TrEMBL record, chains A, B:
<dbReference type="GO" id="GO:0003677">
    <property type="term" value="F:DNA binding"/>
</dbReference>
<dbReference type="InterPro" id="IPR000551">
    <property type="entry name" value="MerR-type_HTH_dom"/>
</dbReference>
<dbReference type="InterPro" id="IPR011788">
    <property type="entry name" value="ZntR"/>
</dbReference>
<feature type="domain" description="HTH merR-type">
    <location>
        <begin position="1"/>
        <end position="70"/>
    </location>
</feature>
<dbReference type="InterPro" id="IPR009061">
    <property type="entry name" value="DNA-bd_dom_put_sf"/>
</dbReference>
<dbReference type="GO" id="GO:0003700">
    <property type="term" value="F:DNA-binding transcription factor activity"/>
</dbReference>
<keyword id="KW-0238">DNA-binding</keyword>
<dbReference type="GO" id="GO:0008270">
    <property type="term" value="F:zinc ion binding"/>
</dbReference>
<dbReference type="Pfam" id="PF13411">
    <property type="entry name" value="MerR_1"/>
</dbReference>
<protein>
    <submittedName>
        <fullName>Heavy metal-responsive transcriptional regulator</fullName>
    </submittedName>
</protein>
<dbReference type="InterPro" id="IPR047057">
    <property type="entry name" value="MerR_fam"/>
</dbReference>
<dbReference type="GO" id="GO:0006351">
    <property type="term" value="P:DNA-templated transcription"/>
</dbReference>
Length: 155, 155
DNA sequence: ATAAACCTTGGAGTTAAATCTAGGGTCAAG
DNA sequence: CTTGACCCTAGATTTAACTCCAAGGTTTAT
């Protein structure tokens, strides 16, 4: 059981943000005290952590609402519906991971091309690194890649 | 050589967005016609694609500006500086990939737990899936994971 | 029993990133 | 030589996601 300030501190956000999430239907406290103070349960906190993680990973609050709506009325959904919605989000996540991997390899190329010494960076070019990586990009975007996790990053 | 509308169409953004990027120092056309029309080169287009990819992957325009600033005055930077900046961005990207992988596995758990049939989704819970995945989360965050690329997602 | 530190609501302000509007030039096709 | 599809600038508006403020009620520690 947390008061709003306690939960906020626990999750390193502002109380204002919690009230904002409530107003927008993402997270309502399970109850109120007689005086009207919001009371959040451990379950509410878990939900909040889910929201924050989804946010950190680039989902908008609207998308998160959509994800959480599964939770709210799950007894009214068929299992197949839930699976469908989750799997479509899962696809988005997988696609985003692929994009990130492509981007990471862009940066990696630049880092690799750079000697790292004290001399001028005349020959270090983000765009050069980009160009040389362009052929590499497509296979990353399309299809699941079991071998592109994280490429060795040394030197 | 592209006029603003051509480049916009090529990259599926609005001309307004290109002018906006120019105003904010992310991408200026290499030249103008006598009439004042913006003229973008292939190099400008590559820079734009870099911007769009970075954006898709969750970087803010300010962060992207910082990344691109390397390009602008690279001759005034030491190679070590460039490498430092790039490597720190690289760390951010790797961290984000880790977060996304954790999130993906959350969703995967839910999908797996869900029978996918026509019956009520009473027992499919995003939060349940979250709980059971909580122990799994930390090893993903810390350290490079060569084997967490993308887990089989079928069924 | 009172001050400090909480909490409440309603509404205004902020920031990032566009997106739109108004009022005009430019250019190629018929 | 005009019409429609472009382009220009400057500035206003929008949207998401907070963040802050005012005016007041509640709790807690001294």
């Amino acid at each position: 059981m947390y008061k709003i300030g306690e939960l906020a501190q626990l999750c390193e956000i502002k109380t204002d943000t919690l009230r904002f999430y409530e107003k927008h239907g993402l997270l309502a406290p399970s109850s109120r005290t007689d005086a009207g103070y919001r009371i959040y349960t451990e379950n509410d906190a878990a939900r909040l952590r889910f929201i924050l993680r989804a946010k950190a990973v680039g989902f908008t609050l609207n998308e998160i609402t959509e994800l959480l709506s599964i939770e709210l009325d799950k007894s009214n959904w068929a299992c197949a519906d839930v699976k469908g919605l989750v799997d479509s989000k899962l696809e988005q996540v997988v696609a985003r991971i692929a994009e990130l991997n492509a981007f990471r390899s862009s940066l990696q190329n630049l880092s690799n091309a750079c000697c790292g010494g004290p001399e001028s960076a005349e020959h270090c070019s983000i765009l050069d690194a980009l160009e040389t990586e362009q052929g590499l990009e497509k296979p990353l975007i399309k299809g699941v890649n079991h071998h592109n996790a994280i490429v060795k990053a040394e030197r």
